[in-house]
Amino acid sequence: MKIEIYRGAPFVDREEEIEFFVEWFSEVPQKILWVYGPKSSGKTTVIEYVVEKRLLGEGNWWEESKFWVKYINLREKLITSYRSFLESFIYPDDVYREEVERNYWISLKFIGLDRRKLKEIKKRERDLFEEIMEVIKKESKGKRAVLIIDEIQILRDLYIRNGKGERELLKKFLNFCVRLTKETHLCHVVILTSNTVFIERIYNDAGLKETSEFKKIEHLKREQVFEWLEIEKIKKEEIELIWEYLGGSIPRILKMLSAYRKGEDLEEFLKREAWLAYTEIVDFLTDFDDPWREYFKEIAKEIVEKGYYSIEGIKKEQKRFLQAWAEKEILFYDPLELRITGNSRVYEKGMEILLERFGK
């Protein structure tokens, strides 16, 4: 097992995912790559590691690398209009250049344009996406271009008002990504999201499905957790208990390790985490009527007993109910595998408590 420190935290055994991305970027761009998975499963960390360590490498990356990479994380952006969308992606060229000189790739402004062009784009006198295309051609200068968009579901409800009715901004943006990949082979586009309801929308769109590939990043497997925690000098019986409560969720395991090293009682810590997950479940249940609460208990029973709940053939109203729990990040909704699980193992322990207290 390979464990290294990345940004001050352990980066644990992601060789399979790393090799997948390295191979993907080595090929000619053909499809949009959608990266999805449970909350805190490591999607953003893995892709950033691959870019920094394998694509750009150490040293003068802007001179030596064969890749030209741009990254934007929409998680902390408030995008409610075409203008705020534009300002998230495009910056005045002089401001953009200052950022390039000062910062590493992960904090760079996305695209820089001179102020005259930017003004014309805001007035709809120039096409935003055509200008981005020209910048990519100019700045990549023969290198393999890579665009990474994180938390794209922020854009799902945006529209452009253009005087001729409404045109969906997100769809126009995704069509632009298709043009970058499948049509021109100019640039890889990687889109990350933990919102699998949004992934389902893409997966069920015949046109987008044909031009997309999907990569699931999951929590660590059992054997990976055991090998890691044995390196941490934790006893086997304690690792069994940790796996039972936390599964392969790296952030939760790191939280446990911090408490463990401070001398906290392991079993008490794990039971407290499960109880907190239970209270989160119970609190959200209060938003629903009794028939839906009973349905949730049926779901919880199957997840506890089988490890998953099948969503194959469920009714529309049941799907909407499950999607609400996925949006709440208590359940993980996988539209490609047609399964529901806990967003992490601790929520499944919370479901066990629910069934013990309110009957199966």
Weakly predicted, low-confidence segments = 101-108, 162-166
Number of domains: 2
**Please, what is the CATH homologous superfamily of the largest domain?**
P-loop containing nucleotide triphosphate hydrolases
Mean pLDDT: 87
Level-1 CATH class name of the largest domain: Alpha Beta
Could you tell me the strand content as a percent range?
A: 15-25%
Q: Output the CATH topology of the largest domain.
A: Rossmann fold
Number of strands: 14
CATH architecture of the largest domain: 3-Layer(aba) Sandwich
Query: Structural class of the secondary elements?
Result: alpha/beta
> What about the largest sheet?
5 strands, parallel
Shape descriptor reads globular
Give the termini distance in whole angstroms.
Answer: 40 Å
How many H/I helical runs? 17
Q: How many whole angstroms does the radius of gyration measure? A: 23 Å
Fraction of residues in H or I helices: 40-55%
Strand order of the largest sheet: 4-7-10-3-11
Domain ATPase: 11-255
Organism: Thermodesulfatator autotrophicus
InterPro entries: Archaeal_ATPase_domain (IPR051667), ATPase_dom (IPR011579), P-loop_NTPase (IPR027417)
Protein name: ATPase domain-containing protein
